């Protein structure tokens, strides 16, 4: 119920802020409720198919369909499991539009004001060198940029897959609770509160929000040159980040940013939630933990390489995510929420 309570309070807060600032571009709940519901149905379908294959092909269950129904009923439809598993999923359609509205309202509440400071912090931390110059020196080929872009685009589906797994499949209630509460708090504290306080657009938009010379013009020109080189080989191979960045700016300029969540650089939710996936994966298995740690490092690298973020955005996100993760763990221990028994896997 704590999860559902957090979602409801966050959604109500979003509506209060929308009313307070008279924001006219808000995303309606029902629109994203439809898409979220479709995603849930697809996820349950895939999960059911995987479980059916497991019990039929590996466990050699003589009646796999009947076993699948029994497992679903016992895992989701008992009173305690319905409250702990199904309710958070049913409340998701409230959370998604609330976050998108909050993010799109950031420039209204606090106009982009931190980009120049973040740029200077980046240079100071990297001995006077812009971090993107380091990433492009290490990975100069546009084909590497292409691969990084693919990894970056995988982020949402991985976030959803990990969250869905921890909601429905983890046989450790304490791990499930810690992961999901941390997930919500990262969106709320890092992606909403800190993102508003340190309102910034990011390197790819630096020249549009800061007067004077644009230190990232060379970065964007390099990416565009690489994009053209890739297109010369195949029209389907692109550095898609460039098109997405232009689309996001067009939506922001037209006042329709809430449909995709608006523009925000500091801190980086891509890096934050990739770090969280690594922390959660580490609880499941060491090989998976190392794999997701490498993925998180690739997202940190790519966030700078593709012009989305300043390096400090990612560093702050990693620190913030660790702080929230361990803070939730401490609170669970303090209030006896970390001693839930290990449940048998259905």
Quick structural summary:
With 346 residues, this protein is mainly α. The protein is built from 15 helices and no strands. The C terminus is likely disordered.
Q: Could you explain the architecture of this structure?
A:
This protein has 346 residues and is mainly alpha-helical. It has one domain. 75% of the residues lie in helices and 0% in strands. It is globular, with a radius of gyration of 22 Å. The two termini are 23 Å apart. The C terminus is likely disordered.
Please describe the structure with a list of short key phrases separated by commas or semicolons.
single chain; 346 residues; mainly alpha
Q: How many domains make up the coordinates? A: 1
**Low-confidence runs:** 342-346
Q: What structural category characterises the helix and strand content?
A: mainly alpha
Radius of gyration: 22 Å
- Shape descriptor reads globular
For the secondary structure, the number of strands is 0
How do the strands and helices of this protein lay out in sequence?
Layout: H1 2-21, H2 29-58, H3 64-76, H4 79-109, H5 115-125, H6 131-138, H7 142-153, H8 155-168, H9 173-197, H10 206-209, H11 217-233, H12 241-254, H13 269-284, H14 286-305, H15 311-334
Helix pairs in contact: 1-4, 1-9, 2-3, 2-4, 4-9, 6-14, 7-11, 7-14, 8-13, 9-13, 9-15, 13-14, 13-15
